[in-house]
Amino acid sequence: MHIPPIAEITDGRLTLQLIDLKVTRTYGGLIEGAPCRHINDRKLQQLKERNPPRAVHIVEPPRLTPPWARASGSYGPDKFLGPMEVLPPLQCEGLFTGPATSKPVPPDFDHLTTELFIVWFQDPSPSHIHPDLVPQILAVPWNDLAEDFGIDDL
After folding, report:
1. What is the pLDDT of residues 68-111, one digit of tens each?
2. Rounded (5°) CA angle 109-111-113
3. Positive or negative CA dihedral for 39, 40, 41, 43?
C-alpha cells in the first residue's frame, strides 16, 4: 500500500517529501520563568543530540525579544540568564525523503530510500510547512547530510 507524503516541496533543483511530522509547542513544558538565549541554546542542542545515530539538521530559527518586553524594560527572566528571547511558537520535526546522495556505496547496494530529519520552528500556518520556511528547508545540504538506506538496512 502506498501512503502519500504529508507534503512535498521543490525548487526545481531539489524535491523533498515530508513523510512524518511531529508538531509541538516550542515552550510546552516550560513551567517557570521566561525563554532566554540560554534556554533556547539548550533546547537546540538537545534536539541535535536526541536523534543519534541519525543525522539531524536544524533550520536556524529567528530569535526575537517581544516588543512588550522591550517597552516595559522587562528584559528578564533574570540577571543571570540574560534578556528574554523567544523562538516561533511551533516546533516541527519532520522526516524527509528525497533523491539519493552521491556518497559512495557498495556495488551490491540496493537503494531503497534517502532520508533526513529536519527540525524547524514556525508560526501557525494552514500549511504543514510555513511557506516562508520552504526555501530554508530546501537549502539544506542534502547530499552531505541525508542518509541512503538499502534493503539490507531494514
Report:
1. 666 555 555 555 667 789 999 999 999 999 999 989 888 888 88
2. 145
3. positive
